[in-house]
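Lab notebook page, bench 4
Experiment: in silico fold of construct C2
Operator: M.H.
Input chain length: 483 residues
Purpose: comparison with the prior construct
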Amino acid sequence: MLLSDILNNISLLTVSGKTDIDIENIQFDSREVNVGSLFIAIPGTQVDGHDYISTALDLGAKAILCQTLPEIRDKKVTYIVVEKSAKAMGTAAVNFYDNPASKLKLVGITGTNGKTSVATLLFHLFRKLGYTCGLLSTVQNQIEDEVIPTTHTTPDSIKINELLTLMLKKGCTHVFIEVSSHAVVMERIAGLEFTGGVFTNITQDHLDFHKTFRNYIDAKKGFFDALPKTAFALTNTDDKNGKVMLQNCKALKESYTLRGVGTYKGKVLDCALYGLNMIINEQEVWFKLIGRFNAYNLLAVYGTAILLEEEPEAILTELSQVLPPPGRFEQIHSQDKKVGIVDYAHTPDALKNVLETINDLKEGNQQVICVVGCGGNRDKGKRPQMAKIACELSDKVILTSDNPRFEEPEAILADMQEGVSITKRKKVLAILDRHEAIKTAVMLSNEGDIVLVAGKGHENYQDIKGEKNHFDDKEEILAAFAS
């Protein structure tokens, strides 16, 4: 594609060199550059792409898009200066791939908890309704039955447009994408034309990145602020920030609720370890999903499907058969009637929701044993909160390692233990080795007890000192039950 066409709708500060040149691909990682590339230099949190302009030129880049010109420039190369290169990259990617989002029904889901569940449920629902669908989520990117590995909740803007183009070629009509707060701030969704946006909830998370809760809220809100008039915005009004998301939003405003007034209303009639009985807009339905938090997820999915012009009866019929995504309240049963639950809960609110659900469902003298850790190089403020919640809502607690990354696990556990009150210390063990922690939890359990292993969910690795070592909570519980 001509460089001039790639630069369409981008606010340019200066251009030095020709724009009527052919560009073979767009790259922001200098290691991916080859002959004919447009290299986009983006200042990042860890590295600055401007430091790699010379490397990109050595590998054959024909044009450089940046925020600051390098001191030494090649006269044969075109240099484009913009105010914000990350945002410009989004528009450039949309142009290069011929705006694939505009040819799809693209729905973005944002919030602290529930993004993966809602996106995955929508993906499976619309496949059941007869559509060819794509999914971009924390667990995996998927085109129908084809699974594509994922590394971020929301991929970079070039990868998103590349995937959307591939989805179009394979006949997709609907695509459901998780929109993280990082993605909004880092302009990963810049230039995309969304058919709709969904807000689940917001609680403390990612303050290591956003610094303040206000910034975190504003990041989520930024997604809705950018929605066009032709889109819809569906929000959870039981969350106090639900209505905030709709302020200044140009899209059609709709809502869902279990407690108040909304377009889509739900009521939980019965909640058990084997399902959820609900009334949704006056229709009583039994679902295979479990817990009040899933009642919200189901309402979000129902509302989205209605806004995408599907029939209520068909939606509820298919939703009643859908199973939870991997690692989301996923149950494992032992021969001696112990219950293992693997859940991705890695925020205070998510852990509280899961443990409250388990306590609502348990019967008689069933114990709740919780294995939980916190990730390294992430928001430290939630560590004592999560330990406190685990202690308040569990009979026994084992604090352990999650994904320590480049932090020492001992330091992470020390932060968590600050949330353990003197009166709760007797019920708490600290076991650094996650394998031993899960094994110990099962050993401490009796017939009928419930063992919750929280924090990693679908992940099949532990991130330690930059290496991802195979580790699967579900496999660990199965092995412990079998021993």
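Observations: The radius of gyration is 24 Å. The mean pLDDT is 93.
Next step: discuss at group meeting.
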